[in-house]
Amino acid sequence: MMLDRRTLADVLRTYARSRGDAIAFVDGETVLTWSDAATRVHRAANALEAAGVGRGDRVLWLGQNSFRLQELLLACCEIGALFCPANWRRQPDELAFVIDDLAPAVVVWQEEEVGPTVQAGRDRATHATRWILHDDGEYEAWIAGAPADDPDADGPDSDPLLLIYTAAFEGRPNAAMLPSRALVAQGLLMAPWQGIDASYVFLNSGPLFHIGTFMPNMSTFVMGGTNVYVRRSDGPEMCEAIARHRCTGGFVMGPMVDAVAEANVDGRYDLSSFRGKRGNRAFDAMVDRDDSEWGRAAGGYGQSETMGMQTFNLLGVGGTGLHGRPSPLLDVRVVDPDDNEVAPGEVGEIVCRGATVMVGYWNRPELNAHRQRNGWHHTNDLGRFEADGTFTFVGPKMRMLKSAAENIYPVEIENCLRLHPAVADCAVIGVPDDVWVQSVKAIVVVREGEKLGEDELIEYCRAHIASYKKPRTVAFVDALPRAGFAVDYDELDRAHGGGGYPGGTTRSA
After folding, report:
1. 252 within a domain of the structure (yes/no)
2. pLDDT at 504
3. Do 378 and 406 fall into the same domain?
4. Quick one: average pLDDT of 338-357?
């Protein structure tokens, strides 16, 4: 008997009993109370079990945002399975990798907009499994025939539940396994800082394969608020949802802000319930100010592997460090290459342990042994503590670019470029971009006797990796500068306008 268990499904059970008539999920014309949601989740859990999904098995979501995504996450919790919402922007080869890597017992997928890409990924994968289409009635018929009793087979709240694929370090993504305790704990911690309570209405406009959307989603869920879903960040659809459901917050940034402002240029939508100004004068005139602690000092440092934030700017206001102070749920340290803690002011690798840390990467025993050595999660990022105890993130140990909310690792793009038969050598840098933070620039050496144009190479990348990772521009050179055997990326930055890397450094080690 687990007297101290508190899983994500337990939160649902609590609100189904205590707030049964309150609204939990809204998706278009679908409006579900907490009681409705619990009944559907139980049916989905029983349908999964009938399909052969058991403890430790994986369920893969290949689609855009939907209340069914969250429903399946909760259903997996009720039977001890693992749930993965994959990045629907991936190309077929990337989706095939995810399918074969996870070897899911069930895949729930979407036909509208993403169907052809998903089908192509399915055709290229070798793993055979059951596929259920969610947007044509098949999914609804599937769960409708299942019993509505609660399986209540959650297991400990330390068991893995949510799988989030990280960006492709060393050319291959890894799925971080987050347990219920991490989702619930981070949600409870951040809710009061964000002004989230049972009256809060959160717009899930950012993708739910992204931890940035899942953080406020979870805060809203654990506080008994309402989660509203739009398929993706479409300006008119977001405006309609905010105005119709009086959303009080949402994952809206960068180009999404511009899309909302453009869709509401004539003022047809009342967006005054929405809290949060974003620096776009037109958008800011439409919405309310966010006076929460998070609204006044948002951000910090974090990773998907730690359910988002490890440090919070709001805990370090007035301090020397650029990224606040550590979460009270985590012990954060900075260590040297021998894993010894370094003195304040010295840069080293960021390590942490605590309630919001993942339980490891799916199917990566060697990587787990390395990244979890000595009982600490080694982030592969560099940082330092300042003399006043505040914290500064310096940059990844491996190079990283930032495009809007997406982390992009040059090695993945370089690996793609090298597959082109006309490419002899290549390197990728980030160029400052007023809209996207950084844009990708490829520096390419063409094989002798071959001809290759910029447009051709960009389209080649678009066909093999997600579109947001492809180079925006290409420069052709006779040779890449090198420092010993390694490419001299600092020289490439100087020669080709690179800069704007995360952490404010010119180039991370």
Report:
1. no
2. 52
3. no
4. 94
Is 286 part of a structural domain of the chain?
A: no
Contact 487, 427 (CB under 8 A): yes
The DSSP line for 154-189 is: ---TTSEEEEEEPP-GGG---EEEEEHHHHHHHHHH
pTM for the predicted model, two decimal places: 0.85
Residue 23 and residue 170 in one domain = yes
Residue-number span of the structural domain to which 488 is assigned:
401-504
pLDDT for res 507? 37
Is 434 exposed, middle or buried, given 0-12, 13-18 or 19+ CB atoms closer than 10 A? exposed
* Tens digits of residue pLDDT in 250-288: 999 888 999 999 999 999 999 999 999 888 999 999 999
Q: Note whether 27 and 100 are same-domain residues.
A: yes
- Give the helix ranges, DSSP H, for 19-146: 34-50, 67-79, 92-102, 115-124, 138-144
241 domain residue, yes or no: no
Number of domains in the chain: 3
Residue 105: closest CA among 142, 51, 147: 51
Q: Using a pLDDT cut of 90, give the percent of the chain over it.
A: 84
3 state DSSP class of 112: coil
User: What number of other Cβ atoms are within 10 A of residue 144's Cβ?
Assistant: 12
* Cβ-proximal residues to 145 (8 Å cutoff; 6+ apart), any chain: 47
Tokens read off for 307: 């359910």
- Here the CATH number for the domain that contains residue 462 is 3.30.300.30
Backbone φ, ψ for residue 355 (5° rounding): -65, -30
> In this predicted model, what pLDDT tens digit does every residue of 95-119 receive, in sequence order?
999 999 999 999 999 999 999 999 9
- Has residue 1 been placed in a domain? no
- In sequence order, the 6+-apart residues with CB closer than 8 A to the CB of 430 are 401, 402, 408, 410, 438, 439, 440, 441, 498, 499, 500, 501
pLDDT 10s digits, 314-326: 999 999 999 999 9
User: Rounded to 5 degrees, what are φ and ψ at 55?
Assistant: -60, 130
Model confidence over 386-398: pLDDT tens digits?
999 999 998 777 7
- Terminal CA-to-CA distance of the chain, rounded, Å? 48
Radius of gyration of the chain, Cα coordinates, nearest whole angstrom: 23
In one-letter notation, the amino acid at residue 167 is: A
* 148: three-class secondary structure by DSSP: coil
